[in-house]
Amino acid sequence: MKHVSILVPNEAVLAAIADPRYMFTAANQFLKQLGKPPLFKVQLVGLTKEVKLNDDSFSIYPDVLIGDVKKTDLIFIPALSGDMKNTLKLNKDFIPWITQQYKDGAEVASLCIGAFLLASTGLLKGKQCSTHWLFANEFREMFPDVQLVDGSIITEQNGLYSSGGAMSYWNLLLHLVEKYTDREVAIHASKYFAVDIGRSSQSAFIIFKGQKEHEDHEVKKAQEYIEKHYADKITVDQLADMYSVGRRSFERRFKKATCNTVIEYIQRVKIEAAKKSFESSRKNINEVMDDVGYTDTKAFRTVFRKITGVSPIEYRNKYNKEAMV
Q1: How many angstroms separate the CA atoms of 321 and 248, rounded?
Q2: How far apart are CA 118 and CA 184, in angstroms?
């Protein structure tokens, strides 16, 4: 029997507690249907006997408190909400327990922005991690020693797991069901919950808004220039000269402020404009490519796939209503 501990933190997202509980209790039912014994003992684990969520709209009563769980096999850290620094303070008492359980052999999985709590343990130092794309910059700022993987739905390293944003954690749940049982049970769960098994990227869902929560005035002006003139040919030298900054210094400051190189930022702004055009217009691939300043079809397709995880035509067919029809 595998002991599954689903944490009930303060400021947790309710669904991210209920869904792993549903998945692993259902997995026991699937095992029974296949003539196999149930494998999982699933418990909600909290710091207090009652945890109020969503501005006290809901109350969750954990099955046990952390002090009552001496040994577990798999820990789920659900998605969190609110101001992350404050939320982490509210849940700091989970950290030594998670760390000790991991040292004692437990595996730990964070769902969506539960990655912030997992990273707070220090267990992710030097390791890869996924989280919701919207919180990527904040995560990098708070945990610079963790290798955040943009666009990835699942990371797995040394018994530590993380998922991408929002509902993509269902793919991590399926992954763990398969790891602890077998492919047959995972497929059964995939069909029951109507979740695509094996989906590995959240890149197509990312909305690039630029990273402007910094105090470098010249870099902000450069970002604004790029966003207004993305259809033009823009060079690093041109931007550095415009704001009277040496090229090397400008590139260093830009990367520090935005977490992107200048070229990466230009590419992401161009591709974001292309995505919006594919979503809302009847333009073909070449027309959109020209609109955002690409002249080489191969280069455009390569960069588009690198950033979104899909080809331009796949993206258009997925998100353009007329193309879908």
Answers
A1: 45
A2: 30
Residue with tokens 């692993």: 24
Give the C-alpha separation, 43 to 64, whole Å: 7
The count of C-alpha atoms lying within 13 angstroms of the C-alpha of 213, restricted to the half-sphere facing its C-beta, is: 8
Dihedral over alpha carbons 262, 263, 266, 271 (to 10 degrees): -140
Query: Residue 309's closest CA among 152, 135, 133, 147?
Result: 152
- The CATH number of 217-324, from 3.40.50.620, 3.40.50.1970, 3.40.190.10, 1.10.10.60, is 1.10.10.60
Distance between first and last Cα of the chain: 49
The pair of three-digit structure tokens given for residue 198, joined into one six-digit string: 């094996």
**Amino acid symbol at 111:** L
What are 258-302's pLDDT values in tens digits? 888 999 999 999 998 998 899 888 899 999 999 999 999 999 999
* pTM of structure: 0.70
Question: 201 is written with which tokens?
Answer: 């990227």
Contacts (Cβ under 8 Å, ≥6 apart) of 280 = 320
The Cα-based distances of 100 to 78, 104, 318 in angstroms read: 19, 6, 45
